[in-house]
Amino acid sequence: MTGGVLTVLFGDPFAAMNTVGLVAFALVGASKAVREEFDLFGVAVVGLAMAFAGGVTRDLLVARVPLALRSPVEILLGLVGVALAVGLSARLASPDEHPLTVAADAVGLAAFATTGAIVATDAGVSAFGVVAVATINAVGGGALADVLLDRPPFILFEDFYASCAVLGGVAYWLVGTLGAPSGVAAAACAAVTVGVRLLAVAYGWRLPTATQLTERLGGKS
Amino acid sequence: MTGGVLTVLFGDPFAAMNTVGLVAFALVGASKAVREEFDLFGVAVVGLAMAFAGGVTRDLLVARVPLALRSPVEILLGLVGVALAVGLSARLASPDEHPLTVAADAVGLAAFATTGAIVATDAGVSAFGVVAVATINAVGGGALADVLLDRPPFILFEDFYASCAVLGGVAYWLVGTLGAPSGVAAAACAAVTVGVRLLAVAYGWRLPTATQLTERLGGKS
Amino acid sequence: MTGGVLTVLFGDPFAAMNTVGLVAFALVGASKAVREEFDLFGVAVVGLAMAFAGGVTRDLLVARVPLALRSPVEILLGLVGVALAVGLSARLASPDEHPLTVAADAVGLAAFATTGAIVATDAGVSAFGVVAVATINAVGGGALADVLLDRPPFILFEDFYASCAVLGGVAYWLVGTLGAPSGVAAAACAAVTVGVRLLAVAYGWRLPTATQLTERLGGKS
């Protein structure tokens, strides 16, 4: 972790992914708050909440002081995303539904699933723990943003959204267990998460409900 | 903690109670999500959230990495409860109001109040801390499940529900302070919690509001 | 921390501020719950949640067992605030909008911003971390109380409310960085927070929305 800012940001897969995720999620969260006509403080809070809530929860789960409170670089990256959202809001009619925002959201999801898996593996938790921390890191910020925006957070469960992070976490664990180095596992996790997410958006994928499943299996009540 | 799985599960009061609580709460949470027509991923998430949220909060409060992330057995128990709920949903019209679900909920409440009291006592917190951690462990999962289901979580406070866990935590602390071994205190906590809860359901017990109390005491405004 | 109860409570800025904040926030939270006709258990839970949620979150963020669980004095102070609210509810028509409650809320906000800044500084976090922990400590309890009362928590962002704690946290960090002793920084933080809050209430201050800002800057879309 020595060397210049560029080394800190891009010298290892964790830092690179973390940088991308922070800017992307701050942009998405702030865009949603702009749409809801929050004041500037509210826009910044929702953007920073979306960027940091997942990572803070991740760090609490593995019992360490959150990186967001220790690193002065982190908050600057979040504010860059907020500033981008405010700037874009002057140009775009509905910034939170723009393809750019949807793409940034998918990239943030993949980046945070990966950083969650890396931190959980370092902390020595079980295979389930790796997948759980990857998923919580990826979707925790969006869930809190929805709560702050007074939307139901389970919108996460209606779409094929959190499932992408689950699959990414499984990919990280599988590739790592097969003996690949950390960077390869991180790349696999990010590729699976962002790929499945973009396919799910493009083709409108849905998971079946319990009623639909039991009907298909012939177990009608 | 050596020996086979049976010893791990039933060799000490903590493990036995924890097993019962995990299956019961995963069953209750998943049943509620089935009722709301969540997709299968959502059903699993609400079930696992109800089973694990209390215990994760408990472990965070006493500053240790959550057991749910360290033990691979824990997640399997939660998935057993989710599978039971999906299976029952094919047979029962409203699984979340069935007497079986109400009983499972009372048993889970008692089991988690007890495990919360045990962990808090081990962590050396104050008497209030023991009761608080027991209550949070017992009702935290249900509160999160209600939030995910977009119901107000304070439904916990309208019924005689969290109060049962408070009384169970007080019983654990009283019996332990009188010098009884941990197993006796655990049995007292579980018996008080589940007993008071079932009596409250059977007789429709309610606590008075502040207005009612001041009227009874003659302090009308 | 040796000596009698008075020394514990008033011997250092942290303990004095913490005492004031606990009683004030328990009073405010319980008053809101009385207004909503919660039962007595619910009134106590909302009051204690408002008093303790911020401090518990603060302690979790700096990775220590929450003070509320370790100190038996803390819970008594919270119960004093709850009892005050119940007593006042017999005399006042709408206790949660009474000037006394608004003043208590401003004092609690200032007290908890200060204790948050002190704990964060002791934990050695970054300047952003000091401001973030001060703000979360100050507004976390009120946000949880609103959730329990089924009100949207972002009411915090519509008023000039959390902003006061942000300014207080900045004042603490600035005064401390200039070399002043901890007591002076604490006094500056408390004075800025309570002063800005009371001025904001008196003059109805609001922050601009992003739309208003871009209109003023001539960046109409």
UniProtKB/TrEMBL annotation, chains A, B, C:
GO cellular component: plasma membrane
Transmembrane portions of the chain: 6-28, 40-63, 75-93, 100-120, 126-148, 160-178, 184-205
Compartment list: Cell membrane
UniProt keyword annotation of Lipid metabolism present: no
InterPro entries linked to this entry: Gly_transporter
Protein name: Glycine transporter domain-containing protein
The keyword Cell inner membrane is annotated on this UniProt entry: no
Keywords on record: Cell membrane, Membrane, Transmembrane, Transmembrane helix
One Pfam entry name: Gly_transporter
Membrane topology: Multi-pass membrane protein
PANTHER family assigned: INNER MEMBRANE PROTEIN, UPF0126 INNER MEMBRANE PROTEIN YADS-RELATED
Domain Glycine transporter: 17-88, 103-175
Main location, first listed in the record: membrane
